[in-house]
Amino acid sequence: MTVADVAAAGRNQLPRGIAYMVGSTVMFAGGNAVVKWQLANYPLGEVAFGRTLFAFLTVAAIVVPRAGWGVLRTRRYRDHLQRGLSQFGSMLCWFLAVSVLSLGSATALGFAAPLFTTLLSIVILKEKVGIHRWSALIVGFAGVLVITHPGAGTLTWGALFALTNAVLISTVAIAIRRMSMTESAETLTIYQMSIMTLCTAGLLTFGFRAPHWGDALMVAFAGAGNGIAQFWWTRSLSLAPPSAVVPFNYLSLVWAMILAFAVWGDVPTPGLLAGSAIVVASGLYILWRETLRRRRPTVPAPHRGVAKGFADTRRTGS
């Protein structure tokens, strides 16, 4: 196979990568709508355990036959535990947020996570951030203020829970960035789902109500859909560059607003639409800058002149 054939094969994966990402957004949005619906009738812990259990079973059914039991082999048990607990806390905050906010508002605030991830990368990973990403951060947080409009006295507990969810998700992203050097995506996912299932099982002590079979089936489908969405999301990133597929992740916001209107009659406010646009634009700009930074070649100082001359030669076609 020639170099041209390899490049063509890589390009052919892009449509599949986009399809997996779009499919994951549909599954995530549908599962979140089911969660909001069920929280009106059942204890939070019961809904959380049901969804997480079926998500774990679905992920295990996908991963174990492919990777075998060796997927559990690791030396970073403590890191997995910390990440799993952060994910558990994030899920709790999300459930509390979606129980009182509209699905669109909770989803929009959740998309502030890339902003917090960039901020925490500066603090924890000591990454250097230039004026462009700092500007995107400031504009993005301004978008969060537009959505929550605290000056009007409407910064509710639900909004605070949604923002806390975004912060915790960003810590999970930082942990994944660190752990992916030694851990596979399958190992990360299996340990995450295992820890979350055990934690949510403990929540059953705070309340349980025998579910109607139809409701139990909905939660089971939501859990299975969440597991499939997790796999599709990971698969998307393995098939195509993040810069090409991650922007499609923001379709989750579109589906959430459509479902919120169709099921609960929630009409998006001008503030929600404007703030969402600002947050999404800021997140995409940060992604673009991050992509440029990673593509930039790192050339040792003594050889930069040689590299520049080579680049000039390529531009002139010599």
Task: Write up what this structure looks like.
This protein has 318 residues and is an all-alpha fold. It has one domain. It contains 13 helices and no strands. It starts with a helix and ends with a helix. The N terminus and C terminus are likely disordered.
How is this structure best summarized?
The chain has 318 residues and is mainly α.
Instruction: Using the CA coordinates, give the radius of gyration.
Output: 21 Å
Integer count of domains: 1
**Class by alpha and beta content:** mainly alpha
Any idea what the shape is? globular
Extended strand count: 0
What is the string of helix and strand elements? HHHHHHHHHHHHH
* Rounded mean pLDDT score: 82
Share in β-strands:
under 5%
**Sheet bearing the most strands, described?**
none
- Count of alpha/pi helices: 13
End-to-end separation:
27 Å
Residue stretches low in confidence (pLDDT < 50, at least 5 long) are 1-11, 298-318
Which bin fits the share of residues in helices? over 70%
Secondary-structure topology with pairs:
Blueprint: H1 3-39, H2 44-67, H3 77-100, H4 103-110, H5 113-123, H6 131-148, H7 157-179, H8 185-203, H9 213-239, H10 242-245, H11 251-264, H12 270-295, H13 304-316
Helix pairs in contact: 1-9, 1-11, 2-8, 2-9, 3-7, 3-8, 4-7, 4-11, 4-12, 5-6, 5-7, 6-12
